[in-house]
Design brief:
Length: 600
């Protein structure tokens, strides 16, 4: 049975990632890319769908023990887990070396004290647990083959097969180190080279040490910020610069519910705000790589801008359901692909333009096509800003005139006007100033409820939406505007959970609500960080700090956050770890640090 979402650690090589549970089980791994088929899919099913457990041996039928301690090794993505057993203490180091050849997962067992019996149980199941590979030996190496894929298992320990699983039983004494490696290779190619675990470990440590040294943030929340930056780096597909929203699919937003989506793609919105955080913390190269990815993905067709793409810029992300997987804690269906790719979400134009504007303002090397793209996006918005859309939350109900979408259309026009005013490009600035005023007036007239003194989710709606918290952050209205303050206070009243976190919008329980789906969901962590930002902006800095530090307490023991927090079950829910949670964590830390709103 899979662990709780917060029981997992992330390891990765900037091309794919694995999740390692507290009991030493790898329950999720897609090879060779984030969006490839999983060879371990136990996270979304059972052990029959693939896993790799490495830890102290236990009697048959007994539950494997969880590690007594675990931590990342310094500021890295190298995981150390320790078990205290009646026979001694043992440490397992898990990591994926930054890729130079075949993708690898390396696990090194080290004896700390006593003599500890250990077991490795490796059950590979390709195609998300559906296909049992052919496992055999070649020159003393174990290889699993199915169709185009092969996975090679290397260890100095003797292996044996039982119940379609590869086992290793051994004992480790103090100072002894035993390594285990799996390597992926296309099945038609020669075997991958023999792994060098100790050298790979040294190289991985050096990589992360050097990368973290570029961080320019040295404020009081540095530990949380650096861990979030490392997580964002791990979610970046190094060959192209694309950034996945999360390395998982179908971890539910409501346990047992149907709100289960594939997040192993690059959302323009998520990637744009990630670029902002990277630029403001010293990571210009990652920001430049994302901008180049964007320009390739959009190509010469900004009129057909998608809200998301594949990590190499693919456009076809057809959605399907994997009916052989029961889902995480029976939360079905399990989905791969994402049908929302073809939605109209006008806010994306604003997020992309804001990201390009920030890159320009912070001195990222000039790219003439990036400026041309901005102009093309505004030409599109001229004719389409006043249309209904699916909005930031990708509703699967009818299109509406979402206020946030209109605000972000205003942002797109405003930032492009600023680009023209800087003298770097030419454009119909007077015409677009009039367009900017028209959008602003439209939102204030149709998206604002005078009686309640709050903006609403959509034109003519009585509902609230946490995306309205971005109004002052985007500069649409100043923080001291009574309408802004009224909206913040209304969201606090109507969208707060009992423990003070923020819901995206009201859900309708068993009935289909504005998003076209039945069921509820947890507090959306990004929205809760936005609330902390807004509270700081309107001068309630102590309250902002308390909320921020309360949000930090929701992170798991390794500093990782999923998409949402279930206030009833008191646990993390949604895909994990989630870029859209870690980015606003960084942004709020920067804002609070600048305001001095912290204790010490």
């Amino acid at each position: 049975m899979a662990g709780r979402i917060e029981d997992y650690a992330l390891i990765g090589d900037m091309q794919t990632a694995a999740l390692v549970c507290r009991d030493g089980t790898v329950d999720w791994l897609c090879l060779p890319r984030f969006d490839s088929h999983a060879i371990f899919a136990g996270l979304l099913g059972t052990e029959e769908h693939g896993f790799w457990r490495l830890g102290p041996a236990v009697p048959a039928g007994a539950e494997p023990p969880t590690a007594n301690r675990r931590t990342y090794r310094g500021d890295s993505l190298i995981l150390d887990s320790e078990w205290d057993t009646p026979r001694g203490t043992v440490r397992v180091t898990d990591f994926m070396p930054p890729r130079d050849g075949a993708p690898q997962v390396i696990r090194i067992v080290e004896g700390v004290s006593g003599r500890v019996p250990m077991r490795s149980a490796l059950r590979m199941r390709f195609s998300y647990g559906r296909i049992t590979p052919w496992v055999h030996k070649i020159d003393g190496r174990t290889v699993a083959v199915a169709g185009p894929d092969s996975v090679w298992f290397d260890t100095p320990v003797d292996t044996y097969g039982k119940d379609l699983t590869t086992y290793c039983d051994f004992t480790v004494a103090p100072g002894e180190r035993v390594a285990f490696t799996i390597s992926w290779q296309p099945s038609h190619k020669e075997p991958p080279g023999l792994p060098e675990p100790e050298q790979s470990l040294e190289a991985a440590e050096e990589f992360w040490k050097e990368w973290v040294a570029h961080c320019t943030y040295h404020g009081p929340y540095r530990e949380a910020v650096v861990r979030s930056l490392i997580t964002l780096k791990a979610l970046t597909y190094a060959p192209t610069g694309g950034i996945v929203a999360a390395p998982t699919t179908s971890l539910p937003e409501h346990i047992g519910g149907v709100r289960n989506w594939d997040y192993r793609y690059t959302w323009l919105r998520d990637a744009a705000i990630t670029l902002s955080s990277l630029l403001r913390t010293g990571y210009r190269e990652e920001a430049r790589a994302w901008r180049e990815w964007l320009l390739r993905a959009v190509a010469g067709d900004p009129e057909n801008l998608q809200i998301m793409y594949g990590i190499a810029g693919e456009r076809e992300l057809g959605e399907a359901e994997l009916d052989w997987l029961p889902g995480y804690e029976n939360s079905a269906p399990v989905r791969v692909g994402n049908g929302a790719a073809n939605q109209l979400q006008l806010d994306v134009y604003g997020e992309v333009t804001e990201a390009l504007h920030l890159a320009h303002m912070t001195g990222l090397s000039r790219n003439d096509y990036a400026s041309l793209l901005q102009l093309k996006l505004i030409h599109y918005l001229e004719d389409h800003w006043d249309e209904p859309d699916e909005g930031i939350w990708e509703v699967r109900g009818p299109r509406r005139h979402f206020v946030h979408s209109k605000v972000m259309a205003w942002v797109a026009v405003d930032r492009t006007i600023k680009l023209i005013e800087s003298g770097d490009v030419d454009g119909p600035v007077d015409k677009w100033r009039e367009l900017r005023d028209d959008i602003h007036r439209d939102v204030c007239e149709k998206g604002y409820d005078k009686e309640r003194n709050t903006f609403t989710q959509s034109y003519g709606s009585q509902e609230l939406d946490a995306s309205l918290l971005l109004i002052p952050q985007m500069g649409f209205l100043p923080p001291d505007d009574k309408r802004v303050i009224g909206t913040i206070e209304a969201i606090q009243r109507e969208l707060s959970t009992p423990d003070g976190f923020i819901l995206r919008y009201p859900t309708a329980g068993d009935d289909a609500g504005v998003d076209g789906l039945a069921g509820d969901e947890g507090a959306f962590l990004a929205c809760s960080f936005w609330m902390a930002d807004d509270l700081a902006m309107i001068g309630r800095v102590d309250e902002a700090r308390r909320l921020f530090e309360k949000l930090l307490s929701l992170r798991n023991d390794l500093g990782l956050l999923a998409e949402e927090w279930d206030p009833k079950l008191q646990r993390q829910v949604g895909n994990f770890p989630q870029a859209f949670s870690h980015v606003p964590l960084i942004d709020t830390a920067l804002r609070l640090t600048a305001s001095g709103a912290y204790g010490g």
